[in-house]
Amino acid sequence: MKNKGIVIFLIFLAIVIVGIIAADFVSKMPDKRPENPYEFNVDEFTKVDSALILFKEQRNFKINFNTPAGICYSNNKIYLVGDSRLQIIDATGKLLSEINLDERPTCVYASSDNIYIGNKRSVSILKNDGSKVGDWKDFGDSTVITSVAEHTGKVFVADAGKRKVWIFDLEGNKIGEFEGKTSNNQIHGFIVPSPYFDLAFNADGELWVVNPGKHSLENYTTGGALRTFWQSQSIRIEGFSGCCNPAHFAFSQEGSFVTSEKDLVRIKIYKPSGEFLGVVAPPSKFEAKGHAPDVAVDDQGNVYALDFDKKVIRLFVKK
Fold this sequence. Notes:
Layout: H1 2-27, E1 55-62, E2 68-74, E3 77-82, E4 85-89, E5 95-100, E6 105-110, E7 114-119, E8 123-127, E9 132-136, E10 145-151, E11 154-159, E12 164-169, E13 174-178, E14 199-201, E15 207-211, E16 216-220, E17 226-231, E18 248-251, E19 257-261, E20 266-270, E21 276-281, E22 294-297, E23 303-307, E24 312-318
Antiparallel strand pairs: 1-24, 2-3, 3-4, 4-5, 6-7, 7-8, 8-9, 10-11, 11-12, 12-13, 14-15, 15-16, 16-17, 18-19, 19-20, 20-21, 22-23, 23-24
């Protein structure tokens, strides 16, 4: 009898242990786990006070690109690149011309005379009629070109791979470069964790470059010397968050910065001094954790956003 009691007890104990193990296994299945109290939730930051939204979406233009790449506004036209093509579009969305390209572009900039198209490791130059002028290819294997701009006979090329800005003359000769350092002893200059590295000139001819890892916009002389900067690091609506933001920016005629961000996707506007003005498009307008839209601003201050996820150009006008 004594042995029988021990056997019964051991069987009961085994059943209890198996039950505990099974219950623990089930509780750890993905759909059975309790919420993580330490998980960082950004849902509250996707909601924006309507009083801060200064623009409204007026319309959008469908585009026939599988992989849109970049947009700019110049000469009262929209210049759009993607796949291996350049499209020139008027302000109503009408296609004016389409030009086949030799490479897959990454960005576009149009001056009064030329169209500069950044490719991963080269820059192509076209006349405004679409005729090819040439290619600049002497960059190196680690180059990733993300932005181009021209001013007073100099062309500035942002290289996210090498984390520097190249300076060329109009014939394609390299005449300078800079890495965003204020001195040779500085440990870092431009911090570019991912291929988002933008630059642009404002209407006063000032060169501004994003330092995305520092969440700052920095003003340089055309020789590459740092003049001033402003920085806003915060997940809240007035700041920039994540590993590298803002991803893209453009200037209005009065010098305001129009910025776009990735991950927590949103478009905002800042005064020329860097003070937060308001929101062009809140996160609710975009896909969650989507791509940062490239942005361009026309002479009236309207914002054209190239939505890479929905593959449309979206026009936002002031309320």
